[in-house]
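Hello again, I could really use a second opinion on something today. For a while now I've been wondering how a particular protein folds. Please have a think about how the structure follows from the sequence. Here's the protein in full, and shout if anything looks odd to you:

***
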Amino acid sequence: MISIRRHMLAAGLLALIAGAAGAQAADYPSKPVRIVVPFAAAGSTDLLARVLARALSTELGQNFLIDNRPGASGNIGADIVAKAAPDGYTLLYTSTNLTANPALMPVPYDVVRDFTPISRVAFLPLALFKSPTVHTQSVAELVTLIKAHPGTFNFSSSGKGGAPHLAGELFRMSSKLDMVHVPYNGAGPALNDVAAGTVQLTFTTYTSAQALMAAKKVDVVAVANRTRLAVMPDVPTFEEAGIKGMEIGTMNGLLAPAHTPPAVVAKIYAALTKAGQSPEFRKQFIDQGGEVMLENPAQFTTYIRDDLERWKTLIPKIGGLQ
């Protein structure tokens, strides 16, 4: 009899919890939602996070606000979300740094244990940009010039260990170049010093560089993708330029703290899916040099686990990362 009562109490408690979670999801969002972007403003992750925030605000009838928390290659912002209340009101919009960082440095969170994946959102191939003070017209000319002046060329990145840093190291290694990495706290500052001629080269996304390109303050050299980008149809891929294996970009994804109610996660994903059906929404990503790649929470969870293993295997093979 006691055992039966215990089971009944447990079942009743579970029903109450489920009912509370369902009510929470029905009311969600009842106040503004913070989306933490762990990088500086004006970089590709930040700009596309704002596209996403506007879409979610429209679909869910509540403000989704961007909170830039740059530093430590994205770890500071990610840790804020990992430790936030799991109620759906603090989200993380981040990049490949999330899955690459654990293979590069100590991180204050566990990617699998401390987050609830909502959806992978987009993929953005990287491109190599140079200062106009570097007077070359092709990848081959650039490689020849760097080899003629060993140790004098620098390449910037949005932070140590991020995809732009890894792309620079792959370029350095594959072409046997003697270059120095200069890490910055975000893509914007890294690009600004290329425009100023303080640093000669950088890998970043079209999104981050488009304003400086339009102002002719940086020049694009090649795209690290299998195909040319629609927004830069005249820019060759690295493979077209004779360098194989230079296919690298950054994913954008949306996550919540671990233990966020599944019903809340499902509601956010449903809103994102609806927004993703809009040609206007997709065009904003394409126009930024990206591709919308919406995945459900289960698919995104698998992607994260696989990408963690991929970087764990790949990074030891790349020099210059310590």
